[in-house]
Amino acid sequence: MRVLFLLAALLATLPAWAQSMPGMRMAKGTEPHMTQSTPPAAELQGKVVMPRTSYVGKRVEYDLYVDERLVNFTGRTRRAIGINGQIPAPTLTFNEGDTAVIRVHNQMHMETSIHWHGILLPNEQDGVPYLNTAPVEPGGTHTFTFPLIQSGTYWYHSHTMLQEQDGVYGSIVIHPKRIPYEMKEYVLVLSDWTDHKSKEVLRYLKRTGEWFAVQKGATQSYGEALAAGYFKDKLKQEWGRMPAMDLTDIYYNKFLTNGQEKGYFKDAKPGEVVRLRVINGSASSYFFLQYAGGPMQVIAADGINVKPFPVNKLEIATAETYDLLVTVPAMGAAEFRATANDITGYTSTYIGQGEPMKAPDLPRINYFQMMREMNSMEGMSAMDMGGAGMTKQQGGGEMKGMDMQHGSAPATTAPSPQNRPENAQEKAGKSMGSMQDMGEMAGMSGMGGAAGDFNYNQLRALNPTTLDSTKQWREINLTLTGNMLRYVWSFDNKTLSEADKIPIRKGENVRMTFTNTTMMRHPLHLHGHFFRLVNAQGAYSPMKHTFDIQSMGKVTIEFEANEEQDWFFHCHILYHMMAGMARIVSYEGTPQNEYARTDYKELKKEDNRPYLWADLMAHSQGAFLETTLSNNRHALEFEGRVNYQGNFETETHLLRYLDNRQFLAAFVGFDYRNNRTLLAEGERNTKNNRRVFDVGLYYLLPLLVRSELRLDSNGKVRLQLERTDLPLSNNFFADLLVNTDREYNVTFRYMVSKYVSLSTNYDSDYKWGTGLTFHY
């Protein structure tokens, strides 16, 4: 198995662009050459890369046809978007020095776009609509032309609304000019799939719906906390006005590799070392990568070669890419498994022939233990902590300014590949010594230590990446902020629609320091640039285009400002970006892109779109309706109650959230009531007969209790306390309300689906009732 390490070292000598040259510029291509793309076969074949010492670039052309189509990944058919009739889109293969000519044909009735993720190219070719490139209009065609000055594993996807989740993503492979080896390689595009429409997913996140947590068993209810011995931790969490902890926002129906839940590379030969080009093309999922055939050698990150090192388990953040070397087992087909980091599912690819060799299962998440660990951080700033879960260097102290852990969430440690159950072929062959080499490989150390779990500190550039210290430095500090209850994500408490551009100047060095104050992790991506991810390797810190920052963590990146115009910077969890976590990095003193001049306001509108949701409780004693129309800072709320005697009450309020945390809101409204069967003779302007305007304040108290203080046009003051969605068990919830008008309401709901709950309530005026609650 020394061949594996020899090949890894050989690969590390390849001319991956910009290993120490972040300022590399563009070149122009030459002769025409047409490349066609075909849909993937059910059992994919590896591409054999042949040795060569030099290469003269060509003009490589692709036509990409974007259209809507019906797909079925789960047994349920829904409309999605494909390219050239497939999801994921075709792999675009080039050589370093080529000129890419890609015609994007929009065959839909809505606009689309394509961004070339990780590719260094002219600003107008970057593909962000209304910033760099015009959107591709319905029925239209846009031709992208750019020289390829780099090599490595990259990908492409739509940057229009939520189309990436719907299927508009594919892989890019750029081979270097010089290849000193012959090796088979496979492209693995990981993705997540939901049967819900992507717009519906974002709307549901905005309304803080519970069903995704119910599906994952992640509600973290008081009943479960009490049974598991975490009641005080749950109480402390909600006292701090924190919602339930989770690793991801969404429950996904399937996880896919190259569009399949399970795939096979049967042309891989026993004992062969193959290269896996792994791309996390998901909309919002992190994955743990495991290989049943032994340790994986990491040889490149985000397209850039790194000093090879072995790992048993690697976590890949959304939008990252890693190149790995693995050895095909002597007998059987080894599973390459990508498990979603919330352990709700996985996708598998089997490499080799024969009986499957399974990768070890990962244990389920202990959400209460995770909650306890987060509670323990209360009162500590991210600066004091240096990052959640930070480890220490061997022989050294804390690496401040860098989240060291990158990877293992609580209670997810995987057993080493050699500890998994053996298959029948292994057991039969072991007596003949055929698995001896496999055992040696699993236990051998090399390239900096024995194989284990991955963290960013293991990434070491092949050459020093330090920037020219004589240049002027610009320091930029950004805080990652958000409100999970309202699903608004931001930098420095400002969404893209509210924020100014981040100014930099060409020729200077830029150091950006990020402090994550949210309870979620965020994979951040800077368009048009590679940066030093400052880690324990110091001068050999790796070059990347996307990095993960853990909850309460801190990360520093550095890059040479060698471009012009405006570039997008954002969280690559699609729903976080669409909820506001994005900024524009703008080069001062350079000519502005025409789209940034004229259409930038369209891009800024995206995160501030209004979303509507409603709950209708149809009970035996009456009907109760609550609706909300909300954007980032405003909400229009309506409450209506009616019974079968013709009594009714309505309240309508327009809110404006005032503080950064969005705990405080001012409102104006109108209260109209006519509970005629409850009125005493001559009763006027009371809680049962009221037509008043009002003004007031809402404030979120500890334990997630919403308090209301209002003054109406008759001079009457009312105080109200309300707690909704109080989790009693995984799918059993309570709503409580009381006010100084001596009104109160108690509701219990048992969720049976995303849209329907069994429910019962007691209202001080309308009394007991039972029935169904419909959720929209």
Can you give a write-up of this model?
This protein is mainly beta and 776 residues long. It is built from 12 helices and 45 strands. The strands form 6 sheets. Strands 2, 11, 12, 13, 14, 15, 16, 17, 18, 19, 20, 21 and 22 form a 13-stranded mixed β-sheet that branches. A 12-stranded antiparallel beta barrel has the order 34-35-36-37-38-39-40-41-42-43-44-45. A 6-stranded mixed β-sheet has the order 24-23-26-31-28-29, with no helix packed on it. Helix 4 (222-228) packs across helix 5 (231-239) and helix 5 crosses helix 6 (367-376). It is globular. Mean pLDDT is 86; it is low at 1-6, 15-40 and 379-449.
Q: How far is the first residue's CA from the last residue's CA?
A: 57 Å
Helix fraction by DSSP (H/I, runs of at least 4): 10-25%
Assembly type of the chains comes to single chain
What class would the helix/strand composition place it in? Answer: mainly beta
**How many strands appear in the DSSP assignment?**
45
Helices, by number, come to 12
The 3D shape can be described as: globular
Fraction of residues in β-strands: 35-45%
> Low-confidence segments, ≥5 residues, pLDDT <50?
1-6, 15-40, 379-449
Outline the biggest β-sheet. 13 strands, mixed
| Rg from Cα | 28 Å
How confident overall, as mean pLDDT?
A: 86
